[in-house]
Design a protein that fits this description.
The protein is mostly helical. The protein has a domain of about 60 residues. The chain is built from 3 helices and no strands. The longest helix has 26 residues. The C terminus is likely disordered.
């Protein structure tokens, strides 16, 4: 649903499917209970993540960046709705 909502593409889309699988990998690498999440710490404080968690997060970021770039190309070509650049914040 995330990809259909944001990019008007089904989960069967190759990149969307990759992101979905990476999210599953990311979730599996997370501890069941993360005690550090309950302790208030400054945002600058370093947090340790497993290497597979960092790899999955980086892959997700790259894939979503790719989807966004492809969408911008579609917008520029007039083949996709201009939903990434519209600024409706002033109309609220």
């Amino acid at each position: 649903m995330f990809f259909r909502t944001l990019f008007s593409i089904p989960i069967e889309h190759e990149t969307a499917s990759e992101v979905f699988h990476e999210f599953r990998t990311y979730r599996r690498t997370q501890p069941i209970l993360n005690i550090v999440g309950f302790i208030p710490m400054p945002r600058w404080f370093p947090r340790s993540f497993r290497s597979d968690t960092r790899k999955a997060a980086a892959k997700i970021c790259c894939l979503i960046t790719k989807l966004t770039s492809e969408r911008m190309v579609g917008i520029d070509a007039g083949a996709a709705p201009d939903d990434l650049t519209k600024q409706d914040h002033d109309n609220r």
